[in-house]
Amino acid sequence: MITIDNLWKSFGSQEVLRGVSLEVKKGEFVALVGMSGSGKSLLLKHLVRLTEPDRGRVLVENSDLALISRHELQSLRSRIGYLFQNGALFDSMTVYENVAFPLREKTRLPAAVIRQKAMAQLELVGLKNATDKYPAQISGGMAKRAALARTLVQEPEVILFDEPTTGLDPIVSKSMLQLFDRIHKQLNLTGIIVTHEITGVFKIVEKVAMLYQGKIIANESPAQMQNSSDPVIRQFLTGDTEGPIQYR
Fold this sequence. Notes:
Layout: E1 2-11, E2 14-24, E3 29-34, H1 40-46, E4 55-60, E5 63-64, H2 70-77, E6 80-83, H3 95-106, H4 111-124, H5 140-152, E7 158-162, H6 170-187, E8 190-194, H7 198-201, E9 207-212, E10 215-220, H8 222-226, H9 231-238
Parallel strand pairs: 3-8, 3-9, 6-7, 7-8
Antiparallel strand pairs: 1-2, 1-4, 4-5, 9-10
């Protein structure tokens, strides 16, 4: 489904991605973990060509993103949902209007069909009673769920979650991860989630890929990762200050 092949990206003299390779199969849910500033969110942006690599390839269903036309890119982006850290809701729109917005802008569906589809997704994420509220009137967790409903209303095949539990308390974070797990299984989506919620995310993904010093140093099941003897992985998972990882 998604193949990242020897991807490199630098900003000036700073090499962030240094030959990243990763494969995500159709229907898999993969966690992308690593230290803050290691390039995890940057890697996600390459998957929808929001940024261009210095070298290397990104393929989605064998289509090289660097070689496809603008029209083909737009078509591919419509199949990939992107859930931003802050939800990126429009403050001037109600929850319902935010969810319906992609269909109003990108399709010619009748208003009744748009409403049916938007309400179905709002019910799926537990927000059917918050449709007329504005983002400022709802909690952070509700805003993240509204953003998820807006992503799902376009019926994507892939969802990229960019630190979706940032700023949420532990209980809400856990409930969000459980929601992602339920939707992944219910809709058979392919997903990549960037997160620091190690304990919670290990319970819902099939694979964990760790990014360190610009490369993927492990791509294993959660159990394999937790039992790893690699000192870098051990230190990262335990949060020890002593070890090969030097925290700044």
